[in-house]
Amino acid sequence: MLLTSWRDDLWQCDPVIVPRVSGLEPQGMWVRALEQIGEHAVGGFEVPVRDDDRAFEELAEGSGLVAGERSNIAWMDAADRRSVRSLAEGFALVDRTQRRDTPHPMRHRNGDGVGERLGQCSLYDPELDLAVETVDARVVSYSLYWFDPVTKVGLVEPVRVEDEHQRRGLGRAMLTAGIDPLALRGAQRVKIGFGTEAAAGLYQGVGFQPTTTDTWYEGRDGAPDACIERLSALRDIHERRPTQGDSVLLGSATPPLSHRRALCLLPQCSTGALFSNTPMRTATWPTLVSA
User: Is residue 281 part of a domain?
Assistant: First the structure.
């Protein structure tokens, strides 16, 4: 279970159950999620739930959370990737190995320390940290690509083209240039998330196919009364059942990107857990798990 502070008054909770791996059932995971929300999440919080996951949907709604915005997930088989496109005249593609001494393009969204924090992520590769520049070295677009050699999964996160430079083919050229080295490193599948029709058109244009949608369930002022009542009932049920083990607290010693706090709680199972510390949903610590 991943609990992330985006701001002091906005938290995100991600209960994660790896398919086909024995461990906690949804109710047991939800108990721990509500416990951590109640202890740490001062202010508002969000829980993303796949729209085809009836178990967590019922748990979220039964706990008094309110359905909010929706987002989409798309996947691509690396073998189906599009050929690399050329940039328009007057633009150049660079990576962080060529710009180590310049401010990181993501600093405006993630803070001045984003470059240092990225360097602390085990899966970060500066050659996959791309930007598009004008002839006067002004950044007009950027994107970041992640490869997990264990799962053979690639992740594209984040992607940004500045408003005044959109619809000029920069995003398509940058994406094809970033996905190609993922495949050359061994990625078999590549994942991306998005929330707008414009992004959907761009990503499908380079080979991504939408697979699932998520609803972001919202709560305010920590765990609401309905959550507390639900937690008590679930805890009574859960404590009567054998568990796979206690939770492990990970990642609290080193703050994640943009000085945000994160608590990563994973069930201790004999089969282990497939998780890596790398940025997720714009900027934090995603898990590269091939579903």
Answer: no
CATH number at residue 161: 3.40.630.30
Give 243's contacts (C-beta < 8 A, 6+ positions apart): 24, 28, 267
Exposure of 274 in the CB half-sphere (CA atoms within 13 A): 17
Tokens of 144: 């970041």
Residue 82's domain spans which residues? 74-211
Say what the pLDDT of residue 228 is.
Answer: 54
CA 41-45-46 angle, to 5 degrees, is: 140
Q: How many domains does the chain have?
A: 2
In this structure, what token pair is assigned to residue 210?
């939408």
Q: Hunting for tokens 């990970």 — which residue is that?
A: 250
What is the per-residue pLDDT across 227-236, written as a single tens digit (0 to 9) for each? 555 555 555 5
- Is this model's pTM higher than 0.85 or not? no
Q: Look at residues 104, 48, 105 and name the one whose alpha carbon lies nearest to residue 287.
A: 48
